[in-house]
Design a protein that fits this description.
Blueprint (H helix, E strand, L loop, with lengths): L3 H5 L8 E5 L1 H4 L3 H5 L2 H7 L5 E8 L4 E7 L8 E5 L2 E5 L1 H11 L7 H6 L8 E6 L12 H6 L4 E8 L3 E8 L3 H21 L3 H9 L1 E5 L2 E8 L1 H7 L2
Antiparallel strand pairs: 1-2, 1-6, 2-3, 3-5, 4-5, 6-7, 7-8, 8-10, 9-10
């Protein structure tokens, strides 16, 4: 089985965001039952994986999947029986070149992700990234740019719980982020007529500590889908 350091060695240097999915902890869990169906459909090709790292460079996704594969996942390259790569040809070749160096191409990003790598679902995003979001989600890019990094982690029981942490360059940036988030949430709450989404927005808690902003929210599947569309 591949170790974390080996997975990291496939991460190319142009990676601006990295998501981690522990399939072995997700299957048949409360968290799986609360995720939007579109997210679950995207994970189907990797149903034999125990773990996947998903690297994003601002244009394309690269999936680095670890497991015991009886055959290559659809559209993926089986590097060994325990490791598969999926993505564009350019991304897969970049991953193989990076692996040949025996070190990660994005060591700072991975170091910042340490707090979420063991979560069932976790992610880290560089503050200068531009995510492909539309609708209400597009406002998140403006919030992201107040930070150096944002980490995210998800778990669930009867509802999905998401914790985000924005690490800013200094207290002033953190204050701007907090104020902008509160204003955005207040406006969105006043404008929405969807009960599920309104409940989600009211559940958001924001705390600031020096240069760090913590955001907690709780949502059921329907409310989360409304937020992202």
């Amino acid at each position: 089985m591949a170790h974390e350091s080996e997975l990291a060695s496939y991460v190319p240097p142009d990676t601006v965001a990295l998501a981690v999915v522990h399939f072995d902890r997700l299957r048949n869990s409360d968290l799986q039952r609360t995720l939007p169906s579109a997210w679950l459909s995207a994970l189907v090709p990797f149903q034999e994986a125990n773990l996947a790292w998903i690297a994003y460079n601002g244009r394309d996704l690269l999936v680095i999947a670890q497991g015991h594969f009886s055959s290559p996942p659809p559209g993926a390259l089986l590097v060994t029986q325990q490791l598969a790569l999926a993505g564009s040809g350019v991304q897969v070749r970049a991953a193989m070149r990076q692996h040949a160096t025996h070190q990660s191409g994005a060591p700072q990003l991975i170091a910042q992700a340490e707090s979420v790598l063991e979560q069932p679902i976790g992610a880290i995003i560089r503050g200068d990234a531009q995510l492909p979001l539309s609708g209400n989600g597009a406002n998140l890019n403006r919030m992201l740019h107040f930070t150096r990094y944002v980490t995210a982690a998800a778990d669930a029981d009867s509802a999905l719980r998401i914790k985000l942490t924005g690490s800013c360059a200094g207290p002033e940036n953190a204050s701007h982020l907090e104020e902008s988030l509160r204003a955005l949430i207040t406006l969105a709450t006043a404008e929405t007529r969807a009960p599920g989404l309104r409940s989600l927005l009211k559940s958001i808690q924001i705390d600031r500590e020096a240069s760090t902003v913590h955001i907690h929210l709780q949502a059921d599947q329907a409310a989360l889908q409304q937020l992202l569309h």
